[in-house]
Design goal:
eleven-stranded mixed β-sheet; single chain; 11 strands; about 375 residues; alpha/beta
Length: about 375
């Protein structure tokens, strides 16, 4: 078996109508020693029938439903090739994906892992290029996030058809991943045996399973980011293995940050303030989410774990849940009306008006009055 042979793992859940696209994007890129593993995470549709059409070209494994992280981990356990790659069942690889990543790993035996960027296609047909940048609405400094840049041609002979993309060594990636995921499993390739237990996705969170894997890998060895879109991610409606809501994302990141960076004493010695800032940011998302839903008991519990919570948040958490939810709904309604009026030219200074009304709605005196009139109600 060649040292560059790849086990590709596709986790899936009720994607019978989409999984063929993913499989068909992988098969033409496979070499003789490669294998393709489908991990069915307890689908209730006809996924098994669709996969069966590919016969011995794929290895099909069915598990009880445990989520995307657990499905990927099962695939890693079943993998037998030196390199492991991943693809979600509703996405697809670009034609050069395996050629690029295989060639990089052959040329750089010192690398533990390599990953790239990706493009996103929405249901209306719009494609968002370089989604790692554009989904954050800001230009990313990859030298700061990952590390020093160089061209692929500086360490390997480019196969025909491949451009000389810029890449970055992963000197800074471990710190950068603390609270922010810059790595998609769809674009990742890893040396299986060298990675060992580091090749592990969180299986106890709704989301952010990739964040834990990226953190473990970047702590364990050298990685490389190639600034190229090797995968096309499809956004659509329907059941998914991963839930991307901001509220659940914050909760999952908190779990992963505390488990990885929060227990890394060397990291905390040098970057404790950075870690605490990132942790606080996600806790504040949780506090705000609980308040908007009127779940004031849970908001108070989260506040106890959070530093420098605004006074208005603390007071709102002490009100009856229905009152808090109503106040925040009223606030959103007022802001929406004012912005609508601005569109029609009714308000010339809408931003100042919104800020002024918001300041009034959440002034200490008003909230304290609401709290006074709400006294005695059961939360």
């Amino acid at each position: 078996m060649k040292a560059s042979a790849i086990s590709t793992i596709i986790p899936t859940y009720n994607r019978a109508h989409l999984i063929s696209r993913a499989i068909n994007s992988v098969l033409p890129q496979m070499e003789a020693d490669d294998e393709l593993i489908i991990v069915d995470d307890g689908s209730t549709d006809n996924t098994a029938d669709v996969v069966a059409r590919y016969r011995d070209r794929v290895k099909y494994i069915r598990t009880t439903n445990g989520g995307c992280g657990a499905a990927r981990n099962r695939g890693v356990k079943e993998a037998t090739r030196p390199l492991v790659a991943f693809l979600d069942s509703d996405d697809e690889w670009m034609p050069e994906h395996n050629l690029l990543l295989r060639t990089v790993m052959e040329a750089r035996p010192d690398l533990l892992f390599c990953f790239t960027n990706f493009a996103t296609r929405f249901s209306d047909g719009v494609i968002r290029r370089y989604s790692l940048e554009t989904q954050t609405n800001r230009e990313l400094n990859w030298e700061e996030i990952v590390g020093p840049s160089r061209k692929l041609s500086s360490f390997m002979t480019l196969p025909a058809g491949l451009q000389d993309y810029t890449c970055h060594e992963s000197d800074n990636l471990y710190k950068s991943l603390c609270g922010t995921s810059y790595m998609s499993a769809d674009t990742l390739i890893v040396r299986r045996e060298a990675a060992g237990d580091s090749l592990w996705f969180a299986d106890d969170t709704k989301v952010a399973e990739e964040l834990e894997c990226g953190a473990r890998l970047s702590a364990a060895g050298k990685g490389l980011y190639v600034h190229y879109e090797s995968t096309l991610v499809h956004h659509h409606t329907g059941e998914q293995l991963v839930d991307h809501s901001g509220f659940d994302m914050a909760a999952s990141r908190i779990v992963v940050m505390q488990r990885i960076w929060g227990k890394d004493q060397n990291f905390l010695h040098h970057h404790r303030s950075y870690y605490e800032q990132r942790l606080r940011a996600d806790r504040m998302v949780r506090v705000g989410g609980f308040l908007v839903q009127g779940r004031t008991r849970e908001a108070r519990k989260e506040i106890l774990e959070t530093n420098n919570v605004p006074h208005s948040y603390r007071v709102l958490s002490k009100l009856p849940g229905g009152v808090t939810k109503g106040l925040l709904s009223f606030r959103r309604a007022i802001k929406s009306v004012l912005k609508s009026l601005t569109v029609f030219g009714v308000l010339l200074h809408a931003d100042n008006t919104i800020a002024g009304i918001e300041s009034f709605l959440f002034s200490d005196s008003l909230i304290q009055n609401v709290q006074f009139y709400s006294a005695g109600l059961v939360l």
